């Protein structure tokens, strides 16, 4: 999954994808422990997808908190000038 595809998802969809990918990673690790996977690089790819999704979620949280602070700051300034 590319970063551009992740950015198009809603926050709720990103959270759902994180949970799905984490479950997939757990299953892949368990299957690999029992019998080696035909392609063990799938585990690495899944970990990277999870990291991309979590990075996007964190970026959205940061942007949201910055916009909240900007809104609070502008309302505080308007009250001080009144």
Short overview:
The protein is an all-alpha fold and about 80 residues long.
Question: What is the strand and helix layout of this fold?
Answer:
Layout: H1 3-8, H2 11-34, H3 41-81
Q: What do these coordinates show?
A:
By secondary structure, the protein is mostly helical. It has one domain (3-72): Helix Hairpins. Helix content is 87%, strand content 0%. The protein contains three helices and no strands. The longest helix has 41 residues, at 41-81.
* Residue share in helix: over 70%
CATH topology name, in short, is: Helix Hairpins
CATH class: Mainly Alpha
For this structure, the quaternary state is single chain
Strand content: under 5%
Number of helices: 3
Give the integer mean of the pLDDT values. Answer: 89
H-E string: HHH
Rg, Cα atoms, Å: 20 Å
Determine the N-to-C terminus distance. 51 Å
Which regions contain 5 or more consecutive residues with pLDDT less than 50? none
């Amino acid at each position: 999954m590319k970063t551009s595809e992740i950015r198009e998802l809603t926050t709720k969809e990103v959270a759902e994808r994180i949970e799905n990918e984490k479950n997939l990673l757990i299953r892949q690790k368990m299957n690999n422990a029992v019998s080696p996977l035909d392609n063990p690089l799938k585990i690495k790819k899944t970990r990277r997808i999870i990291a991309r999704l979590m990075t996007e979620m964190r970026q959205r949280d940061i942007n949201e908190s910055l916009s909240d602070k900007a809104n609070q700051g502008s309302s505080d300034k308007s009250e001080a000038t009144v």
